[in-house]
Each structure stands twice: as C-alpha cells, then as structure tokens.
Amino acid sequence: MIRTWIVKVLTVLSLAALVSVAVPGISTDTMSARAQTQAQTQSQPQKQLPTHLEAIGSSSEMWRAVRGGISGETGLKDPKAGTLVQSEGDNLRAVRNGPISEYGGWLLLASVVLIAIFFAIRGRIKIDAGPSGRTVERFNGLERFTHWLTAVSFIVLALTGLNLLYGKLVLLPVLGPSLFATLTAWGKYAHNYIAFAFMLGVLMMLVLWIRHNIPTLNDLKWLAVGGGLFSKGVHPPAAKFNAGQKIIFWAVILGGGSISFSGLCLLLPFEIYPFAGTFAVLNHLGFDLPTQLTPLQETQLALLWHGVVALILIAVIIGHIYIGSLGMEGALDAMTHGQVDVNWAHEHHSIWLDEVEEKRASGHAD
Ligand code: HEM
User: Fold this and answer.
1) 335-358: per-residue pLDDT in tens?
2) Where are the domains of the chain?
3) Is the sign of the CA dihedral 177, 182, 184, 185 positive or negative?
4) Ligand 1: residues within 6 Å at CB?
C-alpha cells in the first residue's frame, strides 16, 4: 500500500519535472534562461529530498528506479504514460545501430562480393546447345504482372528501408542535411504506402505458384549437383521451378510475409502483440524468453525483427536478381515477354518442358 503511494507520488513529481524541462526547449531566449537557472542550481548546495520521498532513499536511488522502468498511474488515458523512462529504448537503439546495422552491412557486402567472385569464375551461364529459335510460354501476363508488382515494390522498400538504417552514415555526408531530410521524409512515405503493393504481390505469388513449389525428392537430386550452376554442361532435370527457385519462393513468402506482418505492427504501434504469444510457444521448445511484454516492448521487438528479416531477404534477392538477369543467358525473357527458348527450357526445366509439350500435343495447353 505504502509502496503504491510512493510510486504514485514519484510518478507525478517526476512527470512534472520532465514536462518543465521539455516544454520550454524551443526558443533560444528560454534556452538561455534555462542555462542560467541550471548554472544557479549547480552553484547551490544539493537540496534534500522532501521528507515523504525519503523512504525510497537518495535521489540517485529514485532515478535508478525510474531508469529501471518503475511504473505507476497518471491521470492520462494512455497507460504507457505511467512509465516515465522505458530503458529498453536504449537497448533497442544500441542493438539496431550496433550489431544489426553492422552484421547486416557485412551480409549485404558479402552477397555482392560472392556474386562478383562467382561471375569472375563461372561467367554468364550460356545456353549450352545455343538458342533454338523456337520458344515456349513460361509465364502468362498475370504471373509477370505479379512478379513485377512484387519486385518493383520490394526494391523501393529495400532502398528506402536501407536509407533509414544507413542513410545518415552513407547519404547524409554526400547530399547534405536539407536534401537528405527531404529525400528521407518522402522515402518514409513511400516505404509506408508501397508496402501494401508488396503485400498484395506476395499474396498473389503464393496463390499462383504454391502448387509448383511443393518440395519433391527430385529437388534433393538437383541440390546434390548444385543445380549444375557450378559446372558447364551439367543440367539436372527440374519441373517448373527447380530447388533453388523453390528456396527463393519460400524465402519471399515466409520472409516477405514476416516483414509484412512486423511492418503492420509498426504501422499500427501498440495495437498488435505477436511476441509474447510466440515466445510462450518457443518456451515449450526449451527457450527461456520473457512472456510478459509491454506494448512498447512488443513494438520495439517488431522493429528489430522487421530489420533483421528484411536484411536477410535483401541479401537473398540480390542473388536472385543476378541469376535472373546478368548471370544466365535467356532467363530474363521469361519475365519480360513471357517466352523462353526451347533449348533453355530443356536445359533448365526439362520436366516442365516435357509436360508442356505433352499437353500441347494432346491439345490441353494451359
Ligand atoms: C530487377 C529485379 C529482378 C529480376 C531481373 C528478376 C528476374 C526473374 C526471372 C527472370 C524469373 C524467372 C526465372 C525462371 O524463368 O525460371 C524470376 C522469378 C521469380 N522472382 Fe524475380 N526478379 C527480380 C526481382 C525480384 C524480387 C525483388 C522478388 C521478390 C521480392 C522476386 C521474386 C521472384 C520469385 C519468387 C520468382 C519465382 C522463383 C524463381 O524463379 O526464383 N524477383 N525473377
């Protein structure tokens, strides 16, 4: 009972102190007045705590409690206002600007360097038999629209998202504060709204392509020879999508789905709480994660998760973009006009080509 009252009094007093520091912080006049007051305060001997607060000990103990997240109640509607200082915010910033930015940067760099090495050694993967001049439809208009909707929106999201993480470090010194601020503000709007185009694209991809992306035993055979990507003249049979493409598909569906969901948690902060429940399930598997999380902690975890999954997916997609364009002769045709050379199809998707030709022969083409 006494403790609750102490907490209440502390909260109100500390809130009043914070408001009095924060409110006048705009005009230079008030700033200099504040500086004067601070100087006067510093020159005066330290005042004693009011007697009713002495039960909690010294002011350093009081502030330690505040910094430790002590919470109470206020007259404000928002229950979060009862926590004056949520110190996990510091941890969040430290993790985001520390390991996540650092390892994420290395991951992206590693993916570009690995691709450059692969290109230097293997060169462009050619159609071994040369183009036949005959083509077969690989993706119809709806499939190509879905692909480019997802691809273009993802690229905008990736660039604007990377700007939020690295822009201050990379672009600010080049563009200067004014241009950087304008670009970042517009980038943030683009990031928030174009996210919905990406979500739609991922959903459409799931519906259109899931039946071609169920793992099969043949995928293991494809993987065992590295899909023939590392050696000339090796062409393991594959259906519409080979094992490598199935990995990309599921990375986009699961990774993209997870980024979308955590993005929604950030667009609607303090409304969606996925982590406490997820942690409770993980704890059944032997983890020891906290299951009592405040709305603010939930939102902070969503921010970290969003960044981590996005960085991993960007690294994966860099590899995909390479192999779908520069890395393989004839691949891009599939997503531009939808037709691929029959020899390309025979070398990379022989099972699928046989099925298409069989259907065509029997008059049942899709
Ligand atoms: C400029 C960027 C891109 C290019 C040039 C490109 C190119 C391609 C090509 C040529 C294919 C068809 C491969 C085939 O016929 O077998 C394809 C498929 C696919 N693309 Fe992209 N793509 C790009 C960006 C993206 C992005 C950003 C995503 C998702 C975030 C994506 C997701 C997919 C998926 C899931 C498939 C089906 C599986 C696969 O082929 O790997 N693409 N892409």
Assistant:
1) 999 999 999 999 999 999 999 999
2) 2-82, 88-361
3) positive
4) 138, 147, 150-151, 154-155, 205, 241, 245, 248-249, 252, 317, 320-321, 324-325, 331-332, 334-335
